[in-house]
Amino acid sequence: MSLVLALSATSCAAQSLPAETARKSDACQRAIAMSDADRGLAVLVLKDGEPVCSSPRSMLDQPHELWSGTKSFLGIMAAIAVKDGLLSLDEPAAATLTEWQDDPQREKITLRHLLSMTSGHKSRVGRPPGYGKAVASDITAPPGSRFLYGPVPSQIFGEVMRRKLQASGKSGGPKEYLEERLFAPLGIENYKWRNGPDTKPLMPQGVVMSARDWAKFGEFVHSGGRIEGDRIVDPDTFESLFEGSAANAAYGLSWWLPRTSQSEDAVTATTDIDDHADLLPADMVVAAGAGDQRLYVIPSLGVTIVRLAELDLAAVLRGDQGKWSDYEFIQLALEAVDTESQTPSN
Predict the structure, then answer these.
(1) Contact indicator for 219, 182 with CB cutoff of 8 Å
(2) Rounded to whole angstroms, how far apart are CA atoms 209 and 83?
(3) CB-hemisphere CA count at 13 Å for 280?
(4) What pLDDT digit, counting tens, does each position of 101-120 carry?
(5) What is the pTM of this model?
(6) CB distance 134 to 152 below 8 Å
(7) 36-335 has which fold?
(8) Are strands 64-65 and 207-209 parallel, antiparallel or unpaired?
(9) Does residue 7 carry a pLDDT above 60?
(10) What is the CA radius of gyration of the chain?
């Protein structure tokens, strides 16, 4: 009898494996179809570093605009720079931007304010000024009081990094610094970084990168900032990147978070992540760009997801938020990874 039961159990298990594989494959195809139906170009899902769901290889290797997905590189750049002794998050930007000294408002702005979009600078999304003009931009709110999403704080951070690197005797600017410390060691090669009106690299939106290489960056974040076992970021700073501010709980230091936002910011409203915050993995972090470019990293599940799409510029200019659902896409992508669906939620 024991032998019969054992054989029966083995047979059932064997039958369930193909069924589970088919279910995951179906979920993968539905995730890709959902993306394709809404301007999608590429989907790549990694589980513990291995691809489990993806668009055709040719689409994964085609560089594409990340738009504001670029911003999330800045938080990591800051965490590396703290480790390298170049800066600290809570130092006043005026310590480097000497023209801000003796200005009562600007003297209060820290690097944390710049990365969390709470520096008080109001700027038009999609129209980055050069570094110099960004530094000279007006302050419209006390630092730390309001979440004002736009390109100016990122451009200012770029100028801070440029001056920090110059003062330390390092050659190149923030782009070259990130290439040397992060991109090259990770094997990120299929990209370019566009310049702004002042011929300096655009910090808010300049990176054009393949899905495969963006996923390498996601895996780096998943690892806690390690390359071949060596942590190249300051641990405390790295953790700070994924903590919301008093002005917007759904945005950390250049990363979007699954939290309910108290901000009335229009950009925050373009995603349904905060609407479903309680149902999403609590430790998920998101790099997001116009046209619904997405990099989702979920460390607790060992999952990294990339989605690239065409930007409908006319719709953006009309203020049309579109119909893309991050929540629905994430659910499909996770079905393609794990049948248990036991995601740690908020």
Answers:
(1) no
(2) 26
(3) 28
(4) 999 999 999 999 999 999 99
(5) 0.92
(6) yes
(7) Beta-lactamase (3.40.710)
(8) antiparallel
(9) no
(10) 21
Q: Where are the domains of the chain?
A: 36-335
Task: Give how far the C-alpha of residue 279 lies from the chain's centroid of Cα atoms, to the nearest Å.
Answer: 20
Degrees, nearest 5: CA angle 176-181-184: 80
Please tell me the total number of residues recorded for the chain in this structure. Answer: 346
Specify whether the CB–CB gap between 309 and 41 falls below 8 A: yes
pLDDT cut 90: percent of the chain above it: 82
Structure tokens at 16: 């369930």
In sequence order, what are the beta bridge partners of 63? none
Element (H, E) at 305: strand 303-309
How do residues 59-90 score in pLDDT, each as one tens digit?
999 999 999 999 999 999 999 999 999 999 99
Which residue is it, tokens 């298990």? 13
pLDDT at 126 over 80: no
Q: What residues does 297 pair with on adjacent strands?
A: 285, 304
**Mean pLDDT over each residue of the chain, to the nearest integer:** 92
Strands annotated E in 98-243: 191-193, 207-209, 226-227, 230-231
Pair of tokens at residue 148: 């004002």
Bridge pairing between strands 40-47 and 50-54: antiparallel
How distant is the alpha carbon of residue 93 from its chain centre?
23
Cα distance between residue 220 and residue 218, in whole Å: 5
74: its two tokens: 């800045």
Each residue's pLDDT tens digit, 29-51: 999 999 999 999 999 999 999 99
CA proximity to 78, closest of 66, 91, 65, 67: 91
